[in-house]
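The protein record filed here.
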Amino acid sequence: MPTALQIAKHKQVQNAAKTVLARLASMITDHDTEQSIAEKAYAMLCESGYRDTWYHQCPALVLLGSRSCVSISGNDYQPGKEMVGTSNLITVDLSPSHQEYWGDCARSFAVENGRVTLTPQSLEFRNGLCFQQHLHAQMLETVTPKTTFGQLFDWANLRIRQNGFVNLDYRNNVGHSIVTDRDDRQYIQSDNRLELGEISFFSFEPFIRLKGGKWGFKHEGIFYFNEQGKLEEL
């Protein structure tokens, strides 16, 4: 179980990422690109005092349009210059850090009529965004400290398939532990028998597409077990 100080410090960084994502939604225009959106996000992180990232010198990984369903490491990522246009799905994944404390937060934004909307008319947009919210809510109520990384992987992927979606992650996982060295991360994948209660924090970030669909959706948060063994989100 993490200490109160660790929770407070990680939450501070994570809240900065959440605030940037919330502000970013109203700033995206039809002329923006992955590159310009990444620049806006990083500028806001810097304004908040978070210039550093733990993720391969990639503080903001933005995917949209023809790359909506592309799963790529930050080590290989280069932001594209394809414009948002009138209809699109934009995923922004932020990874700020301060000393040994990390933020790791991703959201997908539906764009209709050239602006981000929280109430999209597109059925594919609504289904993808709503399923992500539902899956995270279910996970919070289901997982215990004795749940292994592999069991969480199996649970999440079963529900992804049952609801007509596919897992797009290039590693085929749905999250990882939050550590001080990114190379030490434990992944939520099928063969990992480590119990979630044995680590302090983990991210949950299913990256999914509706079978036969066009768009890739991601929603990510950081989670930990409190003193009562109940899972909470930072």
